[in-house]
User: What shape does this take?
Amino acid sequence: MTTEPKPKKTPPVPPPDPMPPKAFSPLLPGEFRSQMITAVVFLLGGFLGLLARMDSYTFETIANDYGVMVWLLTCGFPILWLVAIILTLKAARHRRQTIQFDTQRQMVKGEITYLWSDKSEGKKYFAAYLYLDGLQAYQQVHPRTFKRLQIGEAAVVEYLPDKPQVSILNLNIKS
Assistant: This one.
């Protein structure tokens, strides 16, 4: 009985150095709503903390029963409001960019310049690409897509004309 030698595994390819900027990721349906719900939860936590702080008897009674967490909530309400404002502004900006991208994007030929995988948070696959006379970006790709991609392969890149650094690699369209 002869045994064939096991095929050698190809060593993992490290990410490019220097790392190109990450590609734009449009909002998925329902993502804006979930981001806004998170912001509202922080806002309500801030209001609850403010109300508890205004009623010192209730604050002392609850703080004695529940300890540090209530104290953090009641004293940290301005921080919760700040987090709510930041989350709201970030979600609104991302939504605005997604709408702008959906209405104004243009397509151009690009080229796959680098392929790598990352096992730090599960197995993730990435493709870096070059477009518009030297602009670069990278994005995560599906494992099956990763296996069929080749460095130097032509690809379609979608970008915003007024902000060309906002781009995505469209692997559903043949270049």
